[in-house]
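Help wanted!
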Amino acid sequence: ARLKMPLATARAVTTTAPTTAARARTARRMTTATRAASLSAYLPADTYHSLPKDGDVTFLHTMVRASNLEATMAFFSALGLVETRRKESQNGKFTLVFMASCQGAPEIEITYNWPDEATGETETFAPPSRSMGHLAFAVDDIYAKCEALEKAGIVINRPPRDGRMAFVISPDGISVELLQKGDALEPREPWKSMANIGSW
Amino acid sequence: ARLKMPLATARAVTTTAPTTAARARTARRMTTATRAASLSAYLPADTYHSLPKDGDVTFLHTMVRASNLEATMAFFSALGLVETRRKESQNGKFTLVFMASCQGAPEIEITYNWPDEATGETETFAPPSRSMGHLAFAVDDIYAKCEALEKAGIVINRPPRDGRMAFVISPDGISVELLQKGDALEPREPWKSMANIGSW
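Answered by r_m:
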């Protein structure tokens, strides 16, 4: 009983279609039930339910590879993401760690290939080419977030001089854009006059 | 009045905290209002509201660059994404097209830098390096989706032999994973015995 139309449309149908009062009540109950199920199961990692409005395609994750799993997890943790699930493959000799703002939100899948058993060498990669731009997250308070990132030892490559936008890069060179939710904050020191560092 | 905790937790608090009946009613009303606002504004593109459960960080988009905007849009359209918004910059000489499963869902931001005015040459890129893996989408019916992609002239690099997983690549070499929602479908021809093509 997945609802295939936007919620607003579904509601309009519920209230305007020529049904009996009883059928209307049932329809309302179904809409409420669907809404509750969708919210609590918003992009759930293992079952791939959609929000009603997603249609037949649901965005799940962006996969990035890490040469150092702990460093990459520390970076995304400082950003505010949490580990939502993890898979270790003895056969494939890799670990997948999924991180998101919360359980059920769109995820970053971090692939970590285990060091070579013979040489102990870890896989290394070139940073992303220009075909891959960045991952973007909206944050409640871009100054507070950048301060937290700095405290975690992360360089703010593009400081939020405008109270609106910042860029940082992961240990493997993956660019992350931070955007202030809603209106830009009032420009404020030390950010206001802080120079760019490197590229992102 | 953004709710900072997962909905399930908020509900538990609403029903177990020692409040008066009136306060409990108000809390229930607020929860319902927040839930409705969040659903209709699920990851809205321009205002960056969160779902209640997202906390202070909300995933917005993954940005990819396109050497040919039409070809890239045709690829993501065949996948089932729609254009949600667009920005043209005369000064920056670029077009940004955002695509998602529906308005308000997590987006792909496609950056298209306009051809050089003097030479008419379009920017080209190396395909993504190994540090960037893929984008992943869950689909209602992986066979129907792969058939639609083939009809649109897209090569199925990793056919869904197992009724569960497929890979395709964008015109600029960006890898896209498709995953069957819920349980895997019954393995079925022609997919069952179809060989891999290229790498992804």
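OP: Thanks! One thing I noticed: The first helix of chain B runs from residue 7 to 16.
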